[in-house]
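Reviewers of the previous submission asked for a worked example of the structure-prediction workflow described in the proposal, so we include one complete record here. The input consisted solely of the amino acid sequence. No template or homolog information was supplied to the procedure at any stage.
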Amino acid sequence: MDSTLLLLLFIALFSASASAYSSQLFRSSCPKRCHCVPDIEANRLLISCRWTEIPSEAFSTFPANITKSLTVECADSEAPSPLPNGVFRAFSSLVEIRIKNCRLDGGLSQRSLEGLSALRALHLDTARGIRVAEGAFVHVPKLEQLSVVDSQLEGFPEAALCDLRNLQILNVSHNLIDSVNLGIASKCNLDVLLSADFTSNRIGAVEEKDLWSFPSLRQLYLGHNAVSRFDNHAFARSTQLQHLDLNDNRLAVIGRIPEGISHLNLANNQLTLISATVANLVSLKRLNVSGNAIDLTTPFSLASAHLEALDLSANRFPSVPFGVFERSTASLVELNVAGNRIAGLQPRAFRNFTRLQKLDISGNQLKSVADETFAGLERLEELSVAGNEIAHVDIGVFNEVGRSLVRFDVSDNSLQEIPVAIGKLSKARHLNFARNHISKAYKFVLSKMPHLRSVDLSNNRLQRVDSFVFADCQHLEKLVLRHNRIDEVNADAFSKCPHLKRLDVSENFIAKFNGSLAELSELELLNASSNAVEILEWREFPSNLRHLILDHNLVTLIGSAETSKVRDVELQFNRIMSLAADQLPRGLETLNVSRNSISVLADHAFRFSSHLRSLDLRFNQLKTLKESTFTVELEQTPQMELFVAENPLECSCDLDWIKKPKSKARQLVKIVDPDATLCRHQLHAEQRLSLADIDRKQLLCAYEQICEPECICCQYGNCDCKSTCPTGCSCFHDATFETNVVRCAALNGSSARAFTPRDLPMFATHVYLERLELPVIKSGDFFGRARLLHLHINASNVETIEPKAFNSLPSLQLLDLSGNRLSSLNGSELVKTSKIAYLFLNDNRLRVFNGALAAAVPNLQVVSLNGNQLEDLPESLEELMAPKGRLSSVSLGHNPFRCDCSDRFAMQRWLPENVERVADSASVFCVENVTRAFRENDTTTLTAFPPNQGGDIFTMPMLHFIAEGNRSFCVPQASGIFGQNPTENSLLLTTLVVVAVLICLAMAVLIIALFRKTHAAFSQRRYKKATPSLNCSSTTPGCSPLPPLIHYDAFVAYSRKDEKMVVEKICRRLEEEDQMILCLLHRDAPSVYSSRFHSISDDLLRQVDQSQSLILVLTRHFLENEWCTLQIKTSLQYFAKSKNKKLITVVCKDVDANQLDPELGQILRKNDHIMITESIPLGSDIFWNRLKSALPIRDAAASDCSQSQIYSEMYGSIVPSDIV
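From that input alone, the workflow returned the following structure tokens.
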């Protein structure tokens, strides 16, 4: 006996040791980011892994030989997760594989499942775009379950499933499959396949042989496809089919289906009747034909005497179609005729439905329920007549169902009162009267229902909760009175309701509960939101209340919560202004007081709230959060999540505990979403900083006078570590006293007169002097400020800085002198300030950047010189910005830099090479004072341009000048013809010009001779003395001088891209019909893109000047191309200033006149223009009428005036009589 006991003890110890060893083995060999669980079967593991994607060598370290089930889920469904060939070769004992949310690149190849000879189940869920290769399942002959769900599967290769002879369950739902045969029709039979799920695919029809390969099929799911028909022989071999789901398709006619079907779902199709094939199913137990268009004309009644559930809802029956299911009255358990057009129920119509337990007649047109309507329904448990028009229920309607009915739903009707008839429902547990017109509830009616658990009277018209309406409901657990008109609750309204756990009286007008809740000892949740409660008295609520909802009330005061045990409180959208410790229950776990007016949190407000896990203070008026507010008495407390965004918090040193590493409050409180929690900077009120990014030194507190903690001379008048804020200034310090900020801005009166920089605190670290009157910064003004880091003297009219004015500022890193009147700095001002890294001199009057100044700040990294008077790049600055220079950034915009085509100015050469280090390169302009340049005989290329700023200044972006100049007006001439010497080429050109002039003179003499010869015949005629008005000579007394020589009637400016349209629509008619002489910009004018600027400008201006009118065709192409060139813009602006000429602008439809630049807008406003619209198209009669009326009238006399001088020269004052 003893030996037997010893043996048993040894075996137990060995088993325990083996088990412990196995568990230890499992834990130690479990792969990373996986969870391993021992299976019931000894030495087998169930492994579940969650990766971003399946790693390439993911399974190499797995305990493959003992893995029974493997689940892999990918966090990134877009990341490629291929399954290499033979990846599972070592998993010879693996029974189940589940892969979810992984993109299996390459899909399942022939060898992906190699080695899985024991695999029984393969589940692929959300494997997007998966493809299955031929022979992919040849290595898993024992597979019984195959699931490929929501993976965009389009189908299987032909006969691919023939390798799965043991397949019993197939699920390919939510894919892109368009055929049921899956490529195996007539190829093989899956003899043991019992269930196939094709839900939510793209199947349009079931053909004759589609299902022949599945002879043993029991369940077929084809719901949510596009099936519009199935062949009459499609189910010829599916003789064992019992469950057929065809809901949500497009079937209008039901063909032949197996006779043995017991569950048939045809919901949401296009049926207009119940076909004979369905009616003749004698084994049918559940039928759903809801959501069709069936009415009483359906000719067949159901033959099944075993039908248990029938759903005829959402059809077109005007009455309950008893004839359809007359053979099933004794077997029906559930009947649904909701959503039809039933207008009435006949008494005793259901007398033969002895087994009916659930009846749904909701959503019809019932107006009343008469006595004996439900007679015979002795087993009825659930009755719904919701969504009708019922206004009256007879008192005896529930006489025969009162002992069985458990749930009664009469919501969404027109009841004026709670029906007295419900008093007969002795077994009722759930009553729903919501969304009626009930304004009256009888006493002692509900109390007759001893089993009543819930009552819903929401959305009615009750005005008060009277006594004895809900009283004495011993088992009532849930009462909903939401959205009524209740403004009074009687003290005994809920008496003797000891088990009431949930009470909803929200959206009423309740101001007080009058002690009505005192007896509700088991009440767990009270929802009184959207009422009129002004004072929160905790003693009004049961001591065991756990969840209180009082949002959207008028709560301004909160009483003592010493005895309350509430854990979760919602008080958002009230008028609470402060919180103190005695106002909060000690067991509080969550508190939401967002969207109130809380501006004060008392010290130690949460000292008793040791269980508080979440505090929501968002959208209040809090300006600070003191550390003392969140200290608690108990040491062991959970960390509280604090929501405090959207408050007008100030970045004061009271918030220092949030950033302080070893703060006790910081360990107890976690700020939720610190990026969205902003505070207003004390110094720069417009700046708001997030608590996530703010630095401790930015958390400042204002002071008038402070003494640092370790200062030993505070009692004396002259003490450096005692800081006194100058009169009229604002001063701040941080919690550690390492930052001391002084700001003096726009002082006036006595404060301005008394202020001097020497009054600044000696330990100041940041000084801001703004908008003061400090014309001179004197030596020693800042002497001894050894801690000074940043010094800003802005817009203070500083003109002179004495030598050593900033002497002995060894810590100074930033000096800002912007916005003053400084004309020079020579470096003597910055003695012993070698740490300056940032120097801001912008918006002064500096003409140079002195080399000595650069030498005085050897650590300079950033300098701003924009807005000064620099005409060229300072040499010292160029050295600092060299590739190995120390400057990283410079600002140079808005200086009057000069530019030329030569290398005369360094700035235009230097800028393209350093554009990335110039912070405001887009604001660097070439500025030319045209008037001064001519007066001082110091001209550049830009001197030829007309002023575009005032009457003297022409400006142009420097980068644009450099780019444009290299293409046009600064392109150098060729060095010689065929590369010859330039001097020789100049002589040759001069010779050619002289020869050309001589040739022109000879031709002119020849033309004059021919002209005189032609008019020789006139010399034989009589002559008369010409009147003075006919003599156009300027020397003749009383005659007006000659007008300018006009060669063209009009100059036409347009875009080259629109030339065809302009010629056909405008120019051709003017030239051919009106005989006008036109000069076209791109046909007759010289090229404006390849020639040098001056020659182009002169020729173009000359042609424009020789035109009587100018027609500007304004299109989008013109704005984007021609208008951007300086030559064309200048010529058009020049013509627009001519007083005796006409400028007509044709504004096409693709141009928005309101978006034009100022120059072009001025041309439109001061001259005639024609707007092309749908009603006035280009080339229409209205267009031509407006154009011709805008053009000047051609004067024949004026046009011949050029000839009058010839007559004058030939004949003097005697002209032929024909002319007279």
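The two ends are 164 Å apart (CA to CA). We consider this example representative of the routine output the project will generate in years two and three.
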